[in-house]
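Example record used in the benchmark description.
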Amino acid sequence: MILLLISSKPFKIVIPRSPSPIFPSAALNSP
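Model output (structure tokens):
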């Protein structure tokens, strides 16, 4: 549950930042 919350927080921030929600890992690696 905690893992999902922690993963959801950055995931939501990455989605709007990166035009490709399919590659959240690439967006997380990219500044």
